[in-house]
Amino acid sequence: MSSALEYDETVENEADKEPNLEEQGGSGNKAAADSFKRTGRMTLYVRRFMRRKSAVVGLVMLLVLIFFALFGSKLSKWSYDEPDFTALGSGPTADHWFGTTVGGSDLYAMVVRGLGRSLSIGLLSSIGTTVIAAIVGTAIAYFGGWFEKVGMWLLDMLLVVPSFLLIALIVSSATGGSDWLWLVFGLTAFGWIGYARTLRTLTLSLREREYVHAAKYMGVPAFRIIVRHLVPNLGSVLTINTVLGVIGAVNSETALSFLGLGIKAPDTSLGTLLNAGQTTVMTSPWILLFPSIVLIVLTFSVQLIGDGLRDAIDPYSRSAGKAE
Q1: What does DSSP assign to residue 61?
Q2: Cα–Cα nearest to 154, from 140, 164, 144
Q3: 312 and 319 in contact (C-beta within 8 Å)?
Q4: What distance in Å separates the CA atoms of residue 161 and residue 154, rounded to the nearest whole number?
Q5: How many helices (H) and strands (E) would you count in the chain?
Q6: Residues 314, 237: Cα–Cα separation, whole Å
Q7: Cα→Cα distances 28→16, 182, 184, 209, Å
Q8: 3-class secondary structure, 87
Q9: CA dist., res. 164 & res. 212, Å (int)
Q10: Are 241 and 306 in contact (CB under 8 A)?
Q11: Would you give the DSSP letter of residue 100?
Q12: Which terminal Cβ of the chain has fewer Cβ within 10 Å, N or C?
């Protein structure tokens, strides 16, 4: 009997010494929860973007071009509007790295100036186009009814307007070096129409979401719902199209300037340089070669960045990686 009592006491003592597994499990889960950090959406997009090597290469190329446009003029003693009459139409030399034009202007300085002007026009017009298209497209889808019918009718009517000719007329009448600002205005005024139709289609599903109906019932103004709820939910599409819109704006500016309907002397752009180079391509090919290379690198880099952003934002993209 005494041995049995001694056995029971021994078992109880050993049980007291054993750790409580439930308490350990609870504390372990709590520690794991405390150490877990929620990954933000922007951080996730950046990680996916950086996994795509071609997008990183495009970003580096674009940063180099922006640096070249901002600070490239400080590397040369010549200005874009300062001709050298001792070197008319000369090839690349130690004094003129890209050669000179027929009028003696330093081509390197003109390429730097033209790249900066084309980038300014592309960025400003792309941002302006995105803002107008986002507000108009979401508003047409949000209000619906007769407002949507009238809005779509106006968009259809504006699509048939010969925007290229109207932009050329607007820019040709500009004076005092403000032609590039009028070119930005023209590209923005006619560039948002087709984009607004696309955003209107994407907003049709967003306007039926619960948070939109809840905001309506709470008496939130319509403009605030559009700006605070609808437009931010299209942020991924807006970001991609803003980046890719730079290419379209630069190409439009180049085409207008190439035809002599865009930027006018003494200012310059990549399109103006291409227009000057195509007349002397047989005698002075460098006048056409260097602006063409810069334009190709610019459009190629922005295209790579756009593809990288599209893959980073798409959850089914290969750049999202695999969980281990």
Answers
A1: H
A2: 140
A3: yes
A4: 11
A5: 14, 0
A6: 10
A7: 21, 65, 60, 39
A8: coil
A9: 39
A10: no
A11: B
A12: C
pTM: 0.78
Report how far residue 50's alpha carbon sits from residue 176's, in angstroms, rounded to the nearest whole number: 44
**Residue 257, Cβ neighbours under 10 Å: how many?**
30
**How far is Cα 136 from Cα 73, in angstroms, rounded to an integer?**
40
Helix H or strand E segment including 239? helix 235-258
Query: Can you state the angle between helices 286-313 and 53-71, rounded to 10 degrees?
Result: 130
Q: Encode 96-159 in three state secondary structure.
A: CCCCECCCCCEHHHHHHHHHHHHHHHHHHHHHHHHHHHHHHHHHHHHHCHHHHHHHHHHHHHHH
Can you tell me whether residue 106 is helix, strand or coil?
strand
| Tokens matching residue 300 | 């190629």
SS3 state at 285: coil
For residues 238 and 244, what is the distance between their CA atoms, to the nearest angstrom? 10
The tens digit of pLDDT for each residue in 277-319 reads 887 878 888 888 889 999 999 999 998 998 888 888 765 555 5
The half-sphere exposure of 206 on its side-chain side, counting CA atoms within 13 A, is: 23
The pLDDT tens digits for 179-219 are 888 889 989 988 899 899 989 988 888 888 888 888 888 88
Structure tokens at 177: 């070096």
Separation of alpha carbons 122 and 251, rounded Å: 9
